[in-house]
Amino acid sequence: MTLKSLRILPKVRDSWSYLYIEHCRVEQEAKAVAFYDTQGKTIVPCATLNLLMLGPGTNITHAAIRALADNGCLVTWSGEEGVRTYAQGLGETRDARRLLKQAYLCIHSPLRLLVVRKMYQMRFPEPLEESLSLQQIRGKEGVRVREIYAQASRETGVLWSGRVYKQQDWKSADPINRALSAANSCLYGVCHAAIVSAGYSTALGFIHTGKMLSFVYDIADLYKAELTIPLAFKATAEEVEKLETRVRKACRDAFHEKRLLRRIVEDIDRLFKIEGITLEPEQELLDMHDALPTGLWDPESGSVPGGVNWSDVSSNSGEE
Questions:
Q1: CA-CA distance, 143 to 276, in Å (whole number)?
Q2: Over the stretch 139-193, which tens digit does the pLDDT of each residue have?
């Protein structure tokens, strides 16, 4: 049975942040999915999952994908260690109000600048002066990030010589850069899941632009200094054996402890809360009818009722 309303789904903040699997078979089992590998079978309820990352060597059945989709779980096909994302399945949201507001704020330059300033403001402990230009704010942010890396290096004793990462040559990077890439990949996946689940677009970025994941990068940057940077340095300082695996597990625990999924959706809503900008809800919730076309756009009246049902028009009416 396909769910028709988000209101009967568990809240995103109560779900598991993500689950990464590789070299296994995934099948449906009642209202859950079962993972089969060399260690045996593991069953996970679909409604518990918010993001399932399918790594190399994974086979998944049509029934399992449907069960995950029915429960609003975002599915991504990723590279080894969850480093790259190749494809995604959609979340459960049908209502476009949040997406429309995001698009409106994104295409109007003055409003977009307000959102960008709020995004940067969230990263600084002190208020930003109104007189600062966007270029000056970015300069301050660059200094802040460099100091965060330097501080993490001093605290852990891990040598830091800069962010270097070659996508085509993963092993050429030093351990700390591999740890950072693995941690950020997990963060991107969780941000991606939260964005899609809440009904926003991953492509309509405000600071980043031009890519299908621009907004994911925008939101992930809000949490790197707090989560992935210190976590990656700590894991590297402990040992480099099985580094990426340990980083992913540490991310899982940190995301759960910090209630990251809940924070992401609330932070986005707060970023987009601009005085005087509201979108009135539709008379019918779109999530109740996933195939209903709803209204038509009109330049003067906004949304108007849907078009003519041509199957009911008499052939003698003169309609074409």
A1: 34
A2: 999 999 999 999 999 999 999 999 887 767 777 789 999 999 999 999 998 898 8
**Residue 44 main-chain phi, psi, to 5 deg:** -130, 125
Angstrom distance (rounded) from CA 299 to CA 234: 56
Burial group, residue 179, by CB count within 10 angstroms (0-12, 13-18, 19+): buried
Q: Return the biggest CA–CA distance within the chain.
A: 85
Residue 55 corresponds to which amino acid?
G
For residue 6, what pLDDT is reported? Answer: 43
Q: Look-up: residue for tokens 């208020």?
A: 127
- Two structure tokens written together for 270: 């707060």
Task: Please return the burial class of 7, using the count of CB atoms within 10 Å of its CB with bins 0-12, 13-18 and 19+.
Answer: exposed
> Does the pTM of the predicted model rise above 0.90?
no
Three-class SS state of 83: coil
- Residue range 105-123: average pLDDT? 92
Q: Residue 296 carries which side chain, given as an amino acid letter?
A: L
Q: What is the DSSP string of 12-34?
A: GGGSBS-EEE-SEEEEEETTEEE
Q: Are 15 and 49 in contact (CB under 8 A)?
A: yes
The residues facing 52 across adjacent strands are 19, 75
Tell me the pairing of strands 51-54 and 58-60.
unpaired
Q: Take residue 298 and report the two structure tokens written for it.
A: 């009109």
> How are beta strands 51-54 and 74-78 bridged, if at all?
parallel
47 confidence band (pLDDT: 50, 70, 90)? confident
Q: Using one digit for the tens of pLDDT, what is the confidence trace for 222-277?
A: 999 999 999 999 999 999 899 999 999 999 899 989 989 889 999 999 999 987 76
Q: Which amino acid is at 179?
A: A
